[in-house]
Design goal:
Layout (H helix, E strand, L loop, with lengths): L3 H12 L13 H15 L16 H8 L5 H22 L7 H17 L8 H14 L4 H27 L8 H8 L3 H4 L1 H5 L11 H28 L6 H9 L3 H24 L1 H8 L3 H27 L4 E2 L2 E2 L21
Antiparallel strand pairs: 1-2
Length: about 350
């Protein structure tokens, strides 16, 4: 898929002023990386030389440091650890036997959620379970019951989305364009966006969650992140025959070549960014309608700011991460016919 990432990065920054400026970086990003690597190896999530696995090459501290460039370092590290954990789960679910077994997905996630709720891992549990308990305890500390319930509900949605993908792989069924966005949101770890609140030390007022502007901000941002990731991971996913990718979905449904389908995905990303921006502009009216206090308005504004900044932070991270590369070199697996090999450093000059 030779020009997919180039198309993504250049088209989005050219077409959207909202994504034109490079994201800021936390001043302690480098020591954060050292701390995250030590934690990943010590927890057993990252095995051997980090450069030999997609998880080890992920550089998730860079994403956390870009989403929260001014955040408390301990809180930013917590978010980076959750990213590492989530992508470790993703890697496990992408491989046999779980890749095609909804039963196995539910079994794994059932063990994780039970451990989190009881507050300790089972004897002899795998590192995923032990670290889930650790991370949940740290994230939930000081948060309300409403937030904890919402976070766990989003973990259940992740479980359901990953199980649905496993069924689709086993049956060889490509999702329809209409069904794909909701499926992709569930399978992309929706609880990660909930973590913005404990990192910033604030919470969303519960009565805001059901409003149309907030739903558009939350779902639209999730779509932009997921679809951008689909473009970057296209080569890796098609190499193993996975159809749960927006490019694959549109190519199959519309009879398009991969590069044409990628262009359509970029169009859809642009539309969703504009949806989110429109919803943000409507927030003041929503504040007034709900009668939010100044403190509540300030909390929402800070959270929305992180949501709005996340897509560009994610694009910059894609240029730095080796997750979709082989041994740190851009993946050569699946170029589209007649296209150049993919580049993950297309925004290096813009940072």
């Amino acid at each position: 898929m030779g020009r997919v990432v180039d198309t993504l990065l250049h088209s989005l920054t050219d077409r959207l002023a909202a994504l034109a400026a490079p994201s800021d970086m936390h001043p302690d990003a480098w020591p954060l990386g050292e701390r995250l690597e030590a934690w990943g190896r010590g927890s057993g999530l990252v095995l051997g030389d980090p450069d030999t696995s997609p998880l080890g090459r992920g550089r998730f501290e860079r994403l956390a440091a870009r989403v929260f460039p001014a955040g408390d370092l301990e809180r930013v590290e917590l978010f980076a650890r959750w990213l590492t954990w989530t992508f470790a789960v993703d890697d496990l679910l992408d491989d046999a036997p779980m890749a095609t077994s909804a039963t196995a997905v539910h079994g794994l996630y059932g063990d994780l959620l039970k451990a989190m709720r009881r507050g300790h891992a089972a004897p002899g549990a795998r590192p995923l379970e032990a670290t889930a308990v650790e991370l949940w305890r740290a994230a939930a500390a000081g948060m309300s019951r409403d937030w904890r319930r919402r976070f766990l509900l989003h973990m259940e949605e992740h479980r359901a989305g990953c199980a649905a993908e496993a069924v689709g792989r086993r049956m060889g069924e490509t999702p329809t364009p209409d069904a794909y966005p909701a499926l992709r949101r569930r399978a992309a770890g929706p609880f990660l966006l909930d973590l913005i609140e404990p990192v910033l030390g604030v919470e969303l007022p519960p009565r805001l969650l059901g409003t149309s502007p907030w739903k558009t901000v939350a779902e639209g941002t999730a779509d932009v992140l997921a679809w951008s990731n689909d473009l970057a991971s296209y080569g890796k996913e098609t190499a193993r025959g996975d159809v749960h990718n927006h490019v694959v979905v549109l190519a199959a449904a519309r009879g398009l070549e991969p590069a044409q389908a990628a262009d359509r995905v970029v169009d859809h990303i642009v539309d969703r960014v504009m949806d989110v921006r429109g919803a943000v502009r409507a927030m003041n009216d929503t504040f007034a309608m709900l009668g939010l206090s100044p403190a509540e308005r300030d909390a929402v504004t800070r959270i929305v700011g992180a949501f709005v900044g996340a897509p560009r932070a994610h694009l910059d991270w894609l240029t730095e991460s080796g997750r979709y590369c082989r041994s740190g070199v851009p993946d050569q697996a699946s170029p589209a016919p007649g296209q150049r090999q993919p580049r993950l450093d297309a925004l290096a000059s813009l940072r």
